[in-house]
């Protein structure tokens, strides 16, 4: 795990090196750190080249896989709410103080929003923003209905899901812009006035998605032991998430996070190894499917790239 600590330091140095030094007040890294930063930058570039090569033959299928993984936790949650209807009603009435009719409306709304939103996102590309809106509204309902805002671990996982939904919305707007660009029959109805890009919000949504993924760090901290190896692991994940947030080799870092989360999910959230009646089984199952949704968002980011507002874009424009 000491190599992970070494890598995390070099990643931080690489991000610092990506910003050009100001003349007269330049901050120059020590020679050993510069060498490590250069090697790590080459590693990330090689990783992105591998991602490009692998994604070419499966590129048209990757967005569908990513979308399915993103909505997986919503489908699982809708099924769980339906199967445990009596338990959920009892909890909402006795613990949350809901009226019986309101609790029924709350559960029905959640099941419908999550189910319909998931199927719309997967199968109806043109209506994807509607599906994303349904899923986001369902998240808001659950956050307040189950008081998720009072649990830092659950709140951080919910925010990371918001990151995936933002990336989904960004992809949907980009796709629609591509269709409109091919539509040569469109005309500007306001000739003589400057024409704004109606799909500019896609870039901001992508930034929001990257920012929300920083909450993934908090979620993972609750799953690991804070010994020496755990601290080094947390530092490594923090640097990877930070690189994704600022858009520094975003595709390569997203792929590295995918690998980390897949291993983490099968080793930490292995709910199938716990007794069916164990109190932690439902929590581990919920975390397992939520992590897959976060992985789906990272795959979508690896497919889309860092976007307009990122260090990667700044480096290309020079």
From TrEMBL:
Q: Which Pfam families match?
A: SURF4 (PF02077)
Q: Per the similarity annotation, which family is this?
A: Belongs to the SURF4 family.
Query: Which membrane topology term applies here?
Result: Multi-pass membrane protein
Main localization category = membrane
Localization recorded for this chain is: Membrane
UniProt KW Transport keyword: no
Residues annotated as coiled-coil are none
Report if keyword Disulfide bond is assigned.
no
Q: InterPro entries this protein is in?
A: Surf4
Q: Where are the transmembrane segments?
A: 100-124, 130-149, 203-222, 228-248, 255-272, 292-311
Please indicate which superkingdom the organism of origin belongs to: Eukaryota
Alphabetically sorted, this entry's keywords are:
Membrane, Transmembrane, Transmembrane helix
**A cellular component annotation (GO) from this entry:** membrane
What is the name listed in the Swiss-Prot or TrEMBL entry for this protein? Answer: Surfeit locus protein 4
